[in-house]
Automatic annotation (TrEMBL):
This is Adenosine kinase. Its EC number is 2.7.1.20. Pfam families: PfkB. Keywords: ATP-binding, Host-virus interaction, Kinase, Magnesium, Nucleotide-binding, Purine salvage, Transferase. Residues 28-333 form the Carbohydrate kinase PfkB domain. It is an enzyme of class 2 (transferase). GO terms for biological process: adenosine salvage; AMP salvage; purine nucleobase metabolic process. It catalyses: adenosine + ATP = AMP + ADP + H(+). InterPro entries: Adenokinase (IPR001805), Carboh/pur_kinase_PfkB_CS (IPR002173), PfkB_dom (IPR011611), Ribokinase-like (IPR029056). Belongs to the carbohydrate kinase PfkB family. The active site is at D296. GO terms for cellular component: cytosol; nucleus.
Length: 374
């Protein structure tokens, strides 16, 4: 199978400004933990305050971009993945471009000269996080960029597509173009519920593209919000997953599969009206650093096996592995973990590797590296 350009992502590229804060900080800016929202005026002073903290980290992120980088890391085939979104023509945009290119992702950014690169405040308390996105340039993506021959060529070449629900707030027209192309060409189109506010306030845009989704990702909170918005009188995640999978489809080529993560509880997979539960990798609480990027990493790991046409069990296993690595080291690990050093082989039930020198993985208990050392 030819893997070059096989997976394409579109989304909101953001520079994460991540720092550990306290409860007073959360109260000051009216922030709830384990939530993801768009910034309001009351949040704007927070970015400067967060940036001045001694423990601050600046990380090239954004939900879709994170997932694509993890998929690229696990695939270990340069150029296997591509990504489009809008950045500013500034220092942060250049850093973003350099980071993703170094990770092996073929990035085709639209660069807005008038608007700065978007940022996302990542507030971490006791290993839990809250995300407040100030989209800025990410909010300026234009369908015209997608239609340019050099960019549409990425769409034509790809066989799998992933777009986080957050992009519904920016360019639903671009999503629709890619979704319709995927259906017409019998390709695989995947999306994520992404956040409760997407299900609540972008319901119409989400419903319009849902018939084209072959895989729907989300977590238990997002699934329950989706059910509530659509008047389903249940909070049972397994029932909700089945109902989402049975939503009418635009194309009959691929059945829809719903994949819902539940933190430390089993992953719910709904397919053909039935549910399978997959346990996650156990992690003692003392090894948890923070949960930022865990869902993105799960999707990235899952997609790395899906594009290789692996069984659903192996896709979930790879997703759980990606999440497990991320939560032990913080969201920043997405940008640098084991880049170019490790070949992931989930099918063989092993974590084997090709080592060129030494693995720079910052996770002490990284399963793949531990396997090598022993």
């Amino acid at each position: 199978m030819a893997f070059e350009g096989i997976l394409l992502g579109m989304g909101n590229p953001l520079l994460d400004i991540s720092a550990v804060v306290d409860e007073d900080f959360l109260k000051k800016y009216d922030i709830k933990l384990n939530n993801a929202i768009l910034a309001e005026d009351k949040h704007l002073p927070m970015y400067e305050e967060l940036s001045s903290k001694s423990n601050v980290e600046f990380i090239a992120g954004g939900a879709t971009q994170n997932s694509i980088k993890v998929a690229q890391w696990m695939l270990q085939i340069p150029g296997a993945t591509g990504y489009m979104g809008c950045i500013g023509k500034d220092k942060f945009g250049e850093e973003m471009k350099k980071d993703c290119t170094h990770a092996g992702v073929n990035v085709h950014y639209y660069e807005d000269e008038a608007t700065p690169t978007g940022t996302c405040a990542v507030c971490v308390v006791g290993g839990e996080r809250s995300l407040i996105a100030n989209l800025s340039a990410a909010n300026c993506y234009k369908t015209e960029h997608l239609k340019r021959p050099e960019n549409w060529a990425l769409v034509e070449k790809a066989k799998y597509y992933y777009i986080a629900g957050f992009f519904l707030t920016v360019s639903p027209e671009s999503i629709q173009l890619v979704a319709e192309h995927a259906a017409a060409k019998n390709k695989v189109f995947t999306m994520n519920l992404s956040a409760p506010f997407i299900c609540e306030f972008f319901k119409d845009a989400q419903e319009k593209v849902l018939p084209y989704m072959d895989y729907v990702f989300g977590n238990e909170t997002e699934a329950r919000t989706f059910a509530k918005v659509h008047g389903w009188e249940t909070e049972n995640v397994e029932e909700i997953a089945v109902k989402i999978s049975q939503w009418p489809k635009a194309s009959g080529t691929h059945k829809r599969i719903t994949v819902i993560t539940q933190g430390a509880d089993p992953v719910v997979v709904a397919e053909d009206g039935k549910v399978k539960l997959f346990p996650v990798i156990y992690l003692p609480k003392e090894k948890l650093v923070d949960t930022n990027g865990a869902g993105d990493a799960f999707v990235g790991g899952f997609l790395s096996q899906l594009v290789q046409e692996k069984p659903i069990e192996e896709c979930v296993r790879a997703g759980c592995y990606g999440s497990n690595v991320i939560i032990q080291s913080g969201g920043s690990v997405i940008g640098n973990i084991c880049r170019g050093w490790v070949v992931f082989d989930v099918a063989a039930e092993a974590r084997s590797a090709v080592v060129l020198d030494s693995c720079p993985c910052p996770v002490v208990d990284c399963m793949m590296w531990s396997k090598l050392k022993n």
